[in-house]
């Protein structure tokens, strides 16, 4: 009996059902971030997203490597959730004192007292303590342009500017 094989990439306009919910184990998450990073390095990340064609290419690459099919909507949704999680981790690691990054467990680290203090002040972020994000460094490079918040804030992706003290920053 011959069965038709599903297309490894489908558009976001297709209806979703609970049966078609994406499954994301650690190896798939890691591979997905690496594939996104590869396309980012090719200059294909525009305004914090990829074109529909690039999302399809990423979907095909995921399918070829792990035989799991994702829709473009699932890929975009997961990428957006990664960016939001990365932003929370980045803020803790780089903007707060007492937090660090463990590259072995891919988690934010802090003393028990610091976590207790943070969670008491930010109860909605309770889950961050147990969440992990592989390739934090790659995510930082890809998503860092969204971190700048003031008129003189700079992305780490922008080369350093040295004015040698000649000009005032506005």
From TrEMBL:
Entry-linked InterPro entries: LIMYB, Myb/SANT-like_dom
Tree of life domain: Eukaryota
Domain Myb/SANT-like: residue ranges: 24-117
Pfam families: Myb_DNA-bind_3
Entries under PANTHER family matching the protein: L10-INTERACTING MYB DOMAIN-CONTAINING PROTEIN-LIKE (PTHR47584:SF14), PTHR47584
Full protein name: L10-interacting MYB domain-containing protein-like
Gene designation per UniProt: LOC105161938
């Amino acid at each position: 009996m011959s069965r038709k094989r599903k297309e490894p990439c489908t558009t976001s306009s297709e209806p979703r059902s609970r049966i078609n919910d994406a499954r994301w184990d650690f190896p798939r998450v890691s591979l997905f971030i690496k594939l996104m990073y590869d396309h980012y390095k090719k200059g294909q990340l525009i305004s914090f997203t990829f074109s529909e064609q690039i999302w399809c290419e990423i979907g095909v690459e995921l399918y070829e490597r792990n035989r799991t099919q994702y829709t473009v909507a699932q890929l975009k949704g997961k990428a957006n959730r990664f960016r939001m999680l990365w932003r929370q981790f980045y803020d803790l690691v780089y903007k707060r004192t007492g937090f660090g990054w463990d590259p072995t467990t891919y988690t934010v680290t802090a003393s028990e007292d610091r976590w207790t203090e943070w969670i008491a002040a930010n109860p909605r972020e309770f889950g961050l303590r147990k969440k992990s994000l592989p390739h934090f460094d790659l995510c930082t490079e890809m998503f860092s342009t969204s971190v700048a918040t003031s008129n003189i804030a700079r992305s780490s992706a922008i080369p350093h500017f040295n004015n040698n003290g000649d000009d005032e920053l506005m």
